[in-house]
Batch of 4 targets.
Target 1
Amino acid sequence: MTAAPGARVAVGVLASGRGSNLQAILDAAARPDYPARVALVVSDREQAQALERARVCGVPAVWANPKDFGDRTAYDAELRRLLEDAGVGLVCLAGFMRILTPGFVRAWAGRILNVHPSLLPAFPGLHAQRQALEHGVRVAGATVHFVDEGVDTGPIVLQASVPVRPDDTEDALSARILAEEHRLYPEAIRLFAEGKLTISGRKVTIR
Ligand code: GRF
């Protein structure tokens, strides 16, 4: 299916840092036949490279400073306001280092994706690549999943594996996984935007 430009799904990306996954999404969205566009990037960190990447592409980029809000509920209400004002239909977490409140997650249920650098459900949370190396696994990978109220627990959309080499460092393994993240995330967004994903319970069906 080729979506008409006017019908492209508006994506809001939340990112705290480097923004290489955001870049992969921006690059995909630059292709005329891609069915989604990045409508807004929000970061909780003023210096996030992600904000600069958005600005370079002419995408509205907003720093929402957590210190300006009394608590997580108030902060997430601001996120909701920003996303809704931008007409966002899909929220993508891309290295966003905050846990979203249940109210936010419920408001966007079935419309929030995250990318995680492990083969979930193995190694959720921080430093997934280090966890994988310390555990001694021979295969690691990346996961794109819908976000539920847990940490890295939502229904899985796409996964890709990479080998773990005997002499791997955390940096080397992270780079190998990151290349897969950059491939998977735009693909998962495309499937969502084309209406090809159905969630039933834990399972995501891809048409
Ligand atoms: C990625 O490894 C992602 O899986 C994790 O945080 C990292 C973000 O990297 N959630 P980047 O900011 O997209 O470069």
Target 2
Amino acid sequence: MQKTKKAHNLVWFTTNLRTKDNRVLQEASKQGNSVIACYCFDPRQFSKTKYGFKKTGQYRAKFLLETVKDLKENLNNLNIPLFTFYDFPENSIPQLEREYNVENVFAQNEFTSEEITIIKAVREKLNKAQLHLYYDQFLYEPSAVFSELNKIPKVFTVFRKAIEKKLSVSRVLTIVSQQAPELENLTKIPTIEKLGFEDFNKHPNSAFPFNGGETEAIKRLKHYIFESKKIGVYKKTRNGLVGIDYSSKLSAWLANGSISARTIYWAVKEFEKTHFKNQSTYWLIFELIWRDFFKYIALQHGNSIFKLEGISNKTYEWSLDQYAIEAWQNGKTAENFVNANMIELNKTGWMSNRGRQNVASFFAKTLKLDWRIGAAYFESLLIDYDVHSNYGNWLYVAGVGNDPRDRVFNVKLQAERYDPKHKFQNIWLQTSLFT
Ligand code: FAD
């Protein structure tokens, strides 16, 4: 790396991989020094968990590589070089501090244990640079939410009504271009092989055939809202199982921060102003509030969201039957609807919300398997894995979270209702016979 005495601000990207509406990037850009940026492909994210699954499987790994490539190009247009490493942030960031005279490091604030541990490790290894952290993954600002609510209500509707009544969503932020940098960035984005996978093609029947990155996220947003106007029927189609447009499919970009929830919110508002407003247009925002809700639950309850008894401290008999766990994972249970959904997940990294609810309920409530194993499997496979949404939903379905009822899905009835002609099941059950 070329050495320079010039002082720099460093943006440490994590799950905020965008240049638009990025508070961390904006704060770094307005504070005098030249801005540089980094992203670390942390080897811990590609290792195996105690349950034997890779923390990040091939689908999310590929999506992430596409995302970082796009981020690098978009940052380049702002004259901000993105340094990329296959290393721990607590190694790479102090190295950048030394080489580029970094005075300030800017990053997204986190509130789950693994992320907190890494932030702490970085802070401890910095020499003189100051670490500045900002919450930037919510629709509603935490400072505003916590000033209205002493405690996050356990029931979603109470939470939603309170914030909708009292708070508003901030406008999106714009980032100004920097002066051209006087340094050379020789770092390269790792290959998928370096992350431990063979390259692969997307499955032809995938309901999520999209690429990663901010550019693709904006394209999808425009398509779903303004071009196809599918948002206008979202409430009717959102329980769909087949095809690309039954729901917004924005979750994967939201999960790694290629798009902000605020950007989606204001696009919906723009659509409502220029086209029409109905229950469906509102419902997309309603779902974004669910996303916020699980983030606030994680913020308030900390590590309890990863515990077997969850945030409600309920104890059940949980099984560790390896045979049943593997049958579920491999789509070989007695329930074809569960199997089809699990095969879809295994072949594509995607599953619909209806599918997720059914397979999770079947795992935790029917088979009574330790729900954390199911959640870890989702963590590995899902392209759109998000720690708060995944663990929050699993807690909910497993009966140790926010649902006051202790519900078990009737998978057969669900299949009859949502896949009456077996269109969805046929796609994936037949696929598994031939591949
Ligand atoms: P849309 O229906 O178009 O909804 C728009 C957005 O609202 C989504 O992109 C998402 O950000 C948010 N949203 C919708 N439903 C939920 C919900 N139930 N909880 C939180 N946010 C929601 N979502 C993830 O993003 N990551 C996960 O790891 C994840 N794990 C899940 C695990 C289980 C067991 C269950 C039942 C649900 C999980 N979800 C998760 C929530 C939901 O299934 C997905 O967000 C949704 O299917 C994504 O598709 P979409 O973007 O087309 O959603």
Target 3
Amino acid sequence: MGIADIKATTVAVPLEAPLRHGAGAHWGRFVRTVVEVIDDEGRSGFGELGGGGESAEAAVLALLPYLKGHDPLQLEQMRWKIMGPTASLYNNRMQLHAAIEMACIDLAGKRLGIRACDLLGGSIRDEVEFASYLFYRYEQDGRGGETSPAEIVDHARDLKQKHGFRVHKLKGGHFEPDRDIEVMFALAEAFPEDRLRLDPNAVWSVEQSIRVAKAIESLNNDYFEDPTWGLEGMRRVREAINIPTATNTVVVNFEQLAQSILHNCVDVVLLDTTFWGGLRQAHKAGTVLETFQYSAAVHSSGELGIQLASMLHLGAALPNLNFAADAHYHHLTDDILVGGKLPYVDGKIAVPTGPGLGVEVDRDKLARYAEYFKEVGGYPYDRDPARPDWYSIIPEFRYADPKVKAMPHTEGGQG
Ligand code: MG
């Protein structure tokens, strides 16, 4: 039973409103490439990676000669074929491998009648808790437009009411640091029982990071995520503050993981099922962290339901998942799954119980959102449409204007 074919389809799925962050913005949609791996018995498994378009699809399809006839259960061999050191030197295939591995795990699970997490050793929890993931948003069709502490609190209250979140994560770094400090205090006052986290996407200097950490250290903080750039920067911040630190930017491979553990650079590592090269690699990193008594968390890179399912299986299997996971998922207006979006109940999403990833792709929706992608195109996530001449250059960082509520009408970018 080997792989017979691969398909790659780029889709765009609308967001409730564009999401602003320190390095740019998500322009009102997520663009993802859905990868389908088909075996020689006609069974399909699905994976997902960020971005899309003709070149992304071609990069996926170019791996078919490596995979034709390969048994989808032989995942370690596949890792060496696609992501071995020589291949990685000339072609960074990390995320391509992640999507194909996700699809193979889905396929293998369906063949064996077991869940993806069972291929990782089984589940120790049957639901995963998530944080609210609050963004300053551009206004779109009467939704979004939050820039002030009161508006962010209203947005958090709405999300808490709809989904039951008890942990709130602010995507900061877009405005001056004092604005983020004010928002954190406003959230703490509005939700005294809930936990908080702040993530400015590494746009602050070590000294700014220490100043912000000291300002918010009395709050009910889970952790301070990527305040500054670099393992050494994170180590210096960690030594000076009283809040645990977290990262999804400076520990994204095993070399960095070793350095971080050797030198105590970061407390909590957010594991991403695409950034790390796949569900198995993210799980492996989690078990290394467990050995050294570090906590893991689950990172979100702007997923649709296929990747969300992989995050749920990762969360189900990680013994040291001591924090709520992240997801952008509730910012989407729809999903490409049969039955629509997976529901949050009391801030948690149930780990799918069906074989493989346990979610079913709705082929009509896949076709509809592939058409939508052709209409609207991609966008460069590291550009901010309301600041066309702006680039994120650190340390010459310039903050956005909080008076700007909506983004101008823009044509789609690329990728
Ligand atoms: Mg982050």
Target 4
Amino acid sequence: MDRSGKAVTKPFIDVLAGQRQAVPPLWMMRQAGRYLPEYRALREKAGSFLNLCFTPEHAAEVTLQPIRRFNFDAAIIFSDILVIPHALGRSVRFEAGEGPRLDPLDTPDKVATLATDADFGKLEPVHEALRRVRAELDAKIALIGFCGAPWTVATYMVAGQGTPDQAPARMMAYRHPEAFAKIIDVLVENSIQYLLGQLKAGADALQIFDTWAGVLPPREFQRWSIEPTRRIVEGVRRQVPDARIIGFPRGAAGQLPSYVEATGVNAVSIDWTADPSLIRERVQGKVAVQGNLDPLVLIAGGSALDRAIDDVLAAYGKGRLIFNLGHGIQPETPIAHVEQMVRRVREYRG
Ligand code: CP3
């Protein structure tokens, strides 16, 4: 409903609910971020990254910045996947230019000390930011809540930082599967509660980011990516049966048919390496597809960008599509190229 009580539909939600749109709804992963001068200004003012996340006024403001500029069909709440380890009492720091740093959780002894319940009071500012954004957002624009998938969050908790291939977590899962399973179980339960809180605070849909799914062999992918995601979807829907959920098992395009089948997500976000015929034939008939422009072609711009946009639309535009990047936008992306992308996608009539 809008403020006068009229029912308003959200094209983004319609696609998740099963209705293809002639003009695909559009947003960008990491759309609030360093490529925007207004983000950099507020980031500086906030001091630390976590301070930006946990000050509702600031988090709401940076969530809305890309909407004002580009009028996207969805806003994603500004936060990070590592707020869950933070609420579990792990030390989480973001060092400028270096990415996240945590105290490594890399032995069964250390895992035995892991709290089972997060302090959700620490995450209340995220919920407050969601309420503020929902109150300001146009009724046609969807608000997305999110969490990291347990596997991806665990890779940072175990290693204490990002690594090129997440070898520390993979090694721990082979050597100490019981200890590793405890980390995953704790993340599953707390992610369910966190996502339910986000729905209550005004999120219209949820995305589960499994950025590091692609480093796992099939058996491990089944156990550490698909199964925990399935449990989260089931746990959320037990309380909110019609919850709309997007999964993003990055780099695992070949395993998307089984991921979709097993998890029950309403949509999958795909990266730019996906094979269009596999996705069309075995994925898009069952769920909506979100993606999948290469973020580097958005930096390059020009005719290469036009061609790449047209390729995504030609590959998936006849089915249920949410136009997006295949991963987050990079800080060096020119704003004019984002404008070029928005214009071209909105000119399309599938
Ligand atoms: O999409 C959005 O605009 C919402 C905000 C959002 C952020 N992180 C803000 C952020 C979302 C959805 C995330 C998810 C996230 N965080 C993921 C999964 C998706 C992905 O991109 O792979 C992961 C793996 C993380 C962990 C994380 N946070 C890393 C590895 C880094 C450092 C790398 C980087 O880009 O700086 C962060 C920091 C971070 N999270 C920034 C932002 C805007 C940059 C911090 C800054 O401004 O200094």
